[in-house]
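Two folds, back to back.
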Amino acid sequence: MQIIYEDNHLIVVSKTCHEIVQGDKTGDESLGETLKRLIKERDQKPGNVFLGVTHRLDRPTTGVVIFAKTSKALERINRMFAEGKVHKTYWCIVQNVWIDADRQVTGSKNKRPLPEKEADLIHWLVRNEKQNRSVAFDREVPNSKEARLHYRVIASTDRYALLEVQLFTGRHHQIRCQLSHIGLPIKGDLKYGFPRSNPDGGISLHSRKVNFVHPVSKVDTFIEAPVPDDNLWRALTSQL
């Protein structure tokens, strides 16, 4: 965890793939509890520290997580999330399928067309609570929720491509599920079809930046999280 923004009302961190935003059945300490302890010690607060969780980020995912330090900020930013006024941009790494012409449709029923290098995706997602995963459908089905995003390829190597993703809805495992559905599972994401895990146990999905009007000061706020420190991320982002 790295603190990347803080004022009297908000604290924003860049989380690693080993940290959880909220407590779960593992019993591991959550980011919220870690931050409360840090603030209490750093600021020498005698009482309990208020810290509100404003949104979640999957455990194997890295990047921006926003917490509220006051009840006023929490109420307002929660409303902003609900109204789509917090704009989130993700980066993720997938296989560079475009470099391999053999992946294009050749008449075989088992092959699908290459995904576009930039596209708007609209699917209907059904969440499976038992398996902790979602399934994407091309049309509305019972118990489904509409999921919308835009992605584009922004860098590539011979084996991998870096996508920038803009979310327009906030569904369970949305990016992971929708990209996998069109043949672009995220690197390391075994749950959604990538063949191999990453050495650190995470997936190559990074909450890169958020922008919003500050819920208290009303100032335009732009926050960016550094990408994970490994060779592949460096190779891809060095092209930008």
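---
second:
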Amino acid sequence: MKGLYAITDCDRLSTDSLLSATEEILRAGITALQYRDKSGDHARRKYEAAELWQLCREHDCLFIINDDLHLAVSSGSDGVHIGKEDCDCKSAREELGPGAIIGVSCYNSLEKALAAQQDGADYVAFGSFFPSTSKQNTATAEPDIIRQAKAKISLPVAAVGGITPANCRTLIEHGADMLAVISSIYQAQDPYSAVMEFNRLLKTNEEM
């Protein structure tokens, strides 16, 4: 897993706007899409997950569900992303099976990343690296934790939290495999162009 990792902005977009923006984002080319909706509207969640799954299949993109194992199974997703208040990695693996992709939020803790690898995670995420308008009361991480993690674990590392084209270079240079982004693409006037700019920066770093 390497590249841009889009996370849905369900808090600020209607279903129609979410699907429309996601189609443009997928058309521009991303590595994975995470469906993150913290509402209790189960009917909406089920419908949106089904529609997003179909879009991801059409664009050959991994589809990950945030924290909801039941929805991850019922939607046919490729896996689940879990945080500190969700189930543990081992339980997720037992529920989803050996082929599922499991990501774990490690915030600013290298110890969590080491434990996640031990428990069978497929990737880890650190952050927030910058102030975020999408997630409140988040832990603060410094870019060097990415370099430390890359030296100690073999899993892909995602960076998350307030990431924009203007500030992402330091995260890429520290070794981030994926940039997990919400507002910078979903709140952009042109989501397609925003993704293309991230992809340009990621590609430029690979060529250096």
